[in-house]
Amino acid sequence: MKLAFHGAAQTVTGSKHLLTLENGKKILLDCGMFQGMGKQTDDLNERFGFRPDTIDCVILSHAHIDHTGLLPKLIKEGFNGPIWCTPATKDLTEILLHDSAEIQQYEADWINKKRKAQDRPLYEPLYTTDDVATTIQLMQTVGYNEWFSPLEDVEVLFTNTGHLVGSAAVNLKVKEGTKETTICFSGDVGRYRSVLLQPPAEFPQADYIILESTYGNSYHDITAGHVDDLQRWIKTTCTKKGGKLVIPAFSVGRTQEILYALNQLSLEKRLPEVKVYVDSPLSMKATEAIKQYTDDFNDRLQQVLKIDDDPFHFEGLNYVESVEDSRKLVDLEEPCVIISASGTADAGRVRHHIGGCLADEKNTVLMAGYCGAQSLGGQLLSGAKEVEIFGEAAAVSVEVGKLASLSAHGDADDLVRFLGCQDAEKIKTIFLVHGEHEVQKEFAERLHRKGYEHITIPGHHEEVEL
């Protein structure tokens, strides 16, 4: 059996891992889009590193675009097999992929206006909404803790990872002759003290583990209160300076955490009197979908639901749907809070809001999660005095902040705890993926100290024999 790493290898995006069995059958674990990789991004998303028409099935860990975003392109290029995931992952993936296709078409139209005028070749999106519709038809769902067989002599079990509603570790048992090999692909591992979700579950003993390592050398500050931080930023920016507080946030997961925090401030009568706008039709759809999976919510949120039937809504909250209303919001001069995607500020409506407020120091851009160094969000966090938006240079005068205590990824302690259900002596190899290389090297050293002997950090398109 062979395992190849065609994404999220020494980087935190584009998750794609290909298992090739001795009988030639191929299983693709995730099919994510690369995001926030600067000028490399388009090239990375153009080439898979394998032939899509040779893949027999896809198994998804969760719905985020860096784990699902190239599924329609995979199908467009010849894949026609089943795509296995949890029910919540299917619902959220459908919403996210439609949004991704619409954003690509919108940006292609914008780019092509200039290209037509310059008599240059037109830009083509990776896929269309028709490709997304075909993708959804191929999706098959199985709940947590139910073994199923996507291929002959292959069994799979989804176990909860607490990263996102429906997120799962993919546990495989593969029989080849008299030999059985067990593999766990962690997907993204959540926090054991998540704002919204149940903690990660234990998973069966594995011979090989493909483990994410995003925060492999970091530790979340459990004493920091994101609710209080959020209140402070609103007061400073909106009340004192009379500016806009723009919060780039992924529509699935992070936006709901922020809305939940704002709802808490509202219930406690601590939310400043300022309008809050969620400028993302996707966020509205995603929030409604997430509310259907209350079993994934943690015990604290279960208690909140007994007194508040909608913990993601509060007085003063406004959803913006139309492009016209979004443009009006960019021009709005009164103090307000704007939550808009994407979380790294590399795509979507939030780029327009950032572009419209960058020149005025009374405004604030508040990042709410991990940003790669090359992403727009990463550049702002690094203190860049000038950034490029829609192909034009823009000076940065706004204050830039970060909600450091908000993250859906487990930190180094959480990742070690996630492995705690395993007998280290029975693990043949741990492959570290979904992390920056320097972070992975530090995390590998920690795992060695914990008794995990065989740690590998694969490179992009690297293939290994199991």
UniProtKB/TrEMBL annotation:
<protein>
    <submittedName>
        <fullName>Metallo-beta-lactamase family protein</fullName>
    </submittedName>
</protein>
<dbReference type="Pfam" id="PF00753">
    <property type="entry name" value="Lactamase_B"/>
</dbReference>
<dbReference type="InterPro" id="IPR011108">
    <property type="entry name" value="RMMBL"/>
</dbReference>
<dbReference type="InterPro" id="IPR022712">
    <property type="entry name" value="Beta_Casp"/>
</dbReference>
<dbReference type="GO" id="GO:0004521">
    <property type="term" value="F:RNA endonuclease activity"/>
</dbReference>
<feature type="domain" description="Metallo-beta-lactamase">
    <location>
        <begin position="13"/>
        <end position="226"/>
    </location>
</feature>
<keyword id="KW-0378">Hydrolase</keyword>
<dbReference type="InterPro" id="IPR050698">
    <property type="entry name" value="MBL"/>
</dbReference>
<dbReference type="InterPro" id="IPR036866">
    <property type="entry name" value="RibonucZ/Hydroxyglut_hydro"/>
</dbReference>
<dbReference type="GO" id="GO:0016787">
    <property type="term" value="F:hydrolase activity"/>
</dbReference>
<dbReference type="Pfam" id="PF07521">
    <property type="entry name" value="RMMBL"/>
</dbReference>
<dbReference type="InterPro" id="IPR001279">
    <property type="entry name" value="Metallo-B-lactamas"/>
</dbReference>
<dbReference type="Pfam" id="PF10996">
    <property type="entry name" value="Beta-Casp"/>
</dbReference>
<feature type="domain" description="Beta-Casp">
    <location>
        <begin position="255"/>
        <end position="380"/>
    </location>
</feature>
